[in-house]
Amino acid sequence: MTHADAPVGRLGATSIDCPDPAELADFYGRLLGMRRVVESPDGGVVAITDGAHILAMMRVADYVPPAWPGPGQRQQMHLDVSVTDLDDAVAGAQRLGARQAEHQPQPAVWRVMLDPVGHPFCLTTVGAD
C-alpha cells in the first residue's frame, strides 16, 4: 500500500445526538452490554464501550427526534475517527476532499471536519492507542 493509499485513521466512535446523554447511555449500555468509559464534566457527553467499539451520546439543545423515514431531519449522529496526529490527519482528510468546520470546540483533542457533501465527522486522538 502506498502512502497515498494508506487510510488517514480508523473508526473511533459513533456519536448520537440526544437530549439526555446519561439516560441514553444507560439504555444502550444495557441493550448492547457496554460500560461507561467517558463522561464530560457537564454531562454533555457520555461514551460507552464493549472493549472494541465506542458509542458516544451527545447532548443537543432543542433536540428533535427523527421522523423516520421523513426527509429534512437534522443530524442525529456522526463519525469520530481515531488518529495519532491531528495535524497529519486533517491534512490527509483534506487531501481526500474534506474541509475543517469553522466551529472547533476542542481543537486540541477533536477536529471537526466536513465531508465533501457537508456531513460532519471528527478526527480525534481519543482512543487512538
TrEMBL record:
It comes from the Bacteria. It comes from Mycolicibacterium vanbaalenii (Mycobacterium vanbaalenii). This is VOC domain-containing protein. Residues 10-126 form the VOC domain. InterPro entries: Glyas_Bleomycin-R_OHBP_Dase, Glyoxalase_6, VOC_core. PROSITE patterns: VOC. CDD domains: VOC (cd06587).
